[in-house]
Amino acid sequence: MTVGLRLDEAVWGLLHQALQLYRDNPRATDHLRHQLAQLEQPLRIAIAGPWRSGKSTVLNAIMGEEVAPVDGPDGSGVFTWYEDGPQPRATAYSTNQPPQELAVAKSATGMRVDLVGWRAGELRDIVVQWPTRALRQVTLIDTPAITGPDEQGRSPVMDRVLRDADAVLFLTRDGRGTDLRVLESTRDSAVGQAAPVNVILVLSRVDEAGGGRVDALLTARQLARQQYRDPRVNALCVDLAACSGLIGLAGRVLSESDFAALAQLARVSREDLETHLLSADRFVRGELPVPLDPGVRAALLDRLGLAGVRLATTLVRTGCDSRVKLSAELIRRSGLTELRESMSRFFVDRRDTLKARSALAGVEALVRAEPGPGTGELLSAVEQILAGAHEFRELCLLAALRNARLGFDAELAEEARRLVGGDGVGLAIRLGVEHDATVQRLWEAASDAQWRWRDLAEDPLLRLAQRRGAQVVVRSCEGMLAELAEGGR
């Protein structure tokens, strides 16, 4: 919440100021009107990353259905947009033809889109409408593989991701090297420097780490916590999560027949089964001590991977004696629950903030690409909004609290996280009071918190970073009090 002019109001005014300035430039005005329209549309979250980072699998796991990928005719893929709709439908957008509806076949496992007749390089976007609750508040974008930065430090695919998406799940195998350089290239603008709040870094395919051991997922989560403490990493994202999209998806779509086959495998001793899980070929073609058709084994391998089969059979042996129990435990172990919670906390709950950020980035890019009389004032307005936007500071503080680098004790850190919206952005949730609390109760809680955190912000014994963090909390409390006062008029 912004004290004074709200962020969304400031951005709306900026866009209209830019429209007036570029009124004689049709291309620019189309771009600005598009930015205005996007403010009212669902949040656009791109799932990006290098080749074989598991983008489509993570997208399917989030949706709980197998709908991706939709590959382009040249095999390289296109930008595929998944949005809510009354029935499955796909529309192709090309570089030289009008939009064309594509034939869609829905099956028990998802969908297939007919791309017969399209030539390499023709397709630019495919928009898929799919009826699911997962897309009520967001549009998910499956992107082509991102290559490393070129000689100018740019990645063309990442450049388009930043233009088209409000937020990014950036998938990486190890969170180092080229992947970090790609993310660092996203901060070469005023918006990128001032508000690096639209990226969650995801360590993906973590089930394959350490040879696919049963504890690989736990080890990956510990690694994610360690890496997030790296200043180079946490300067580029608001959170770092570890997630096996394959195992998360398996948990969401596991069938009774899948469970029955895994239960059969679980009857084999751990030592005997492990010899068959040394390779995919040995698992599918070897002689198992239990009767299990090679086709069923191949389907399990496709669904779970070797590491997933190893994990699932271990879980069945140790108490997951039904499909429901096994599904829940696979989802929990995969890291998918934590990833979805992070998306809700940093993306969905902050939809208006991220939409405003996209609009600011769009205006800044336009001004830098097409400077002219009056555009300097427009750029100054962008920078002024960035400097005054408390919403961005809240997200940055949440990220700092996430990795404990401020040094607050556990109780203070928990209260700060709640007050700046880490559990949700509603007043009652922020203030930790009952959801039906009276205005008087909300006012007293906000006022008490304001004075408590103001004392911390002025405490000379605290480090500068802690005092600045406390100042953000104070401003959040002031915003809540202003909202309550305005509501009472």
UniProtKB/TrEMBL annotation:
Coiled-coil intervals, chain numbering: none
Pfam families with a match to the protein in the record: Dynamin_N
InterPro entries: Dynamin_N, P-loop_NTPase, TRAFAC_Dynamin-like_GTPase
Highest taxon in the source lineage: Bacteria
Organism: Micromonospora sicca
Protein name: Dynamin family protein
Domain Dynamin N-terminal span(s) in chain numbering: 45-172
